[in-house]
Amino acid sequence: MDQKYDNPMRRQLYSIETLITSIYSDTEKKARTVLSTPEIYSLKQVVITGCGDSYCAALAVEQAFRKLTGLSVSALTAIEVSRMDPTEKIGQSPNNPLIIGISNSGRVTRVIEGLMRYGQAGALTLAITSNQDSPLVLKADRNLVLSIPEFEKAPGIRNYVCSMLALFLLAIRIGEVLGNYTMDLANQYRNELVDSMKYVSQSLKDQDEKILQMAQKFSDVTSGELIAQGGDASSAVFIQQKMYEAVGLPCVWGDSESWFHTNKYLRDFQHTLTIVYISKRDNGKERTLEALKRMDFMKRIYIVVTDDEMESDYVLHTPLLAHDIFSPIAEFAPPCLLVSYLTEIKNESYSRGFAYPYCDAPGIPGTVESEIKMVSL
After folding, report:
1. Is the pLDDT of residue 7 over 80?
2. What is the structure's pLDDT at 89?
3. Which 8-state DSSP code applies to residue 213?
């Protein structure tokens, strides 16, 4: 890799293995103890919420949380939780639902508002954050505070992975207490999460030069689209967000079926970066392959992201984990490295350097500067 293209976003990606190794023991202990055994036994429903990267983390663990715990689990955006979700279904039994609010800063208004609203209606509220002194911590019944070391600033990658780790560990613990699997299997799950970081690092190293070449190939793109479904959806949403934050380009995402109904009619596909997720164990894989066949017919160029063996002009490989419910913690990284290189090649500044009009200002609404309002439906 040409050193002139190295950048903070890339360095965050390459720091993940060391980061997870360093915080794992502390995070696992907190995930194990943050809820008491009686509280876990009382649970019937779990709602996980956040904004931006934190919502992606919620979406990433939704299927795993449901499978591991056997509970009803929903990943909802913070605006849904704070302003739209009916309160009549909250608090019908003790500690239900458990609502988990994720915010790295602990200062995002909608997440705070959502936990307050659910808490007032009788839910058990749990905050996942790295800010011990934040308003979110003060408003939650329980707190899982992540000890994330400081690192150079870039569009959130480290906090995203740490949030996923905490949520996966919490789900494993709940399922273990409920007797859904043995302690030995629970520990296998935990070990797989840590080991997956080695595979992520190796996949980045193995493909680094190829990914840079792809970024150079697609350096003239003016927009992006992600095609993904099921467990891959969170990675697609995450990469979509990085395209806006890092490169400053419009980007959309949808599943393979919606692509046929909508995205297929895009006019300027020559300048659109199309990234397609195809997981080996995806039940919708056949429909995605049909979409690729249609793209080939249209002479559209695309990048495939897969944990399977595939023949295509541009392929990014992600680790094939033993349990696909944990795949989101590994499969976002190679496309994220591609975005980091695009940012450098296009000479872009993260978040437009937070210069006007992208900066915050007193009295101007933002993620933190927003009035808290309690809505009852």
Report:
1. yes
2. 81
3. H
